[in-house]
Amino acid sequence: MAELVECATLEMWYARNSIRGSNPLVSAVNNNDMPKITIRYPLVKDAKRLLEIFNNPNFIYINISAKSVADEIRWIKARPQKRKDNHEWNYAIIYGDKIIGSIGIKINQEQKFIGEIGYYVDEKYWGKGIAAQAVKLAEQEGFKKLGLSRIEIIMCLENKASEKVAIKNNYKKEGRMKKAIIDKHGVKWDAWLYAKVL
Ligand SMILES: CC(C)(COP(=O)(O)OP(=O)(O)OC[C@H]1O[C@@H](n2cnc3c(N)ncnc32)[C@H](O)[C@@H]1OP(=O)(O)O)[C@@H](O)C(=O)NCCC(=O)NCCS
Which of 15, 49, 53, 169 is the most buried (most CB within 10 A)? Predict the structure, then answer.
């Protein structure tokens, strides 16, 4: 982070560290009983598959707005600028040659050392530790490349699977946020705030 502050802009920091414009492919350590996954920036060709994954009525506690492939392509095409502006860093989660989910880090624009991780995984792959591994990979990006020193994960109280993902990654519960998450029907839910700090 100190090095980041010394540079006039995030772009300069990336230029110095030669990572700007590259598409990181970050791999999880495979510990035999878990599928090995990687994460990389989303590409236009991923749009249909990502839409198919999150257009799932069982995705209750998450609000994703793309209604069509065209919407999703627009969203994907906006990602390079979001990265350039250090607003959001999104990644597709890859297993073998399949896209099985997505994970992102949203940078707090008032305090750029804070990021929030959010994720979703194809229901067919739930319960295999995929989201937990993806959080590890995204967290490496956040702490090592983006200069974060605090990462938050916020989930509805009812979203036990998401809470477990945070706990498995040693995030600590900091408190309850009243009506902090709005779902796709406009209903606001109380949420747990979990965080990890360096
Ligand atoms: C939340 C989500 C990403 C988890 O993905 P996943 O790959 O299944 O997560 P993991 O396998 O790493 O961990 C899930 C854990 O929750 C547990 N779990 C699942 N449902 C549970 C429930 N109702 N109560 C308690 N634990 C539950 C699983 O058993 C697993 O724990 P284990 O590894 O100890 O067995 C996935 O359910 C999802 O995409 N949900 C819809 C989108 C969403 O809610 N995203 C999060 C927004 S905050």
Answer: 53
Q: Of 112, 108, 110, 105, which Cα lies nearest the Cα of 139?
A: 105
Question: Model-level pTM?
Answer: 0.87
**Model pLDDT for residues 125-146, shown as the tens digit of each residue:** 999 999 999 999 999 999 999 9
62 lines ligand 1 (CB under 6 A): yes
CA angle 138, 77, 17 (to 5 degrees): 50
14 lines ligand 1 (CB under 6 A): no
Asked if 57 contacts 49 with a C-beta cutoff of 8 angstroms, the reply is no
Sign of torsion over alpha carbons 139, 145, 150, 152: negative
In the chain the domains, ranked by start, together with CATH numbers, are 2-153 (3.40.630.30)
For ligand 1, atom 33, name the residue with the nearest CA: 129
For 14, half-sphere exposure in the C-beta direction (CA atoms, 13 angstrom radius) is 15
Residue with CA at minimum distance from ligand 1 atom 12 = 129
* Residue 181 CB–ligand 1 contact under 6 Å: no
For residue 193, give the amino acid letter.
L
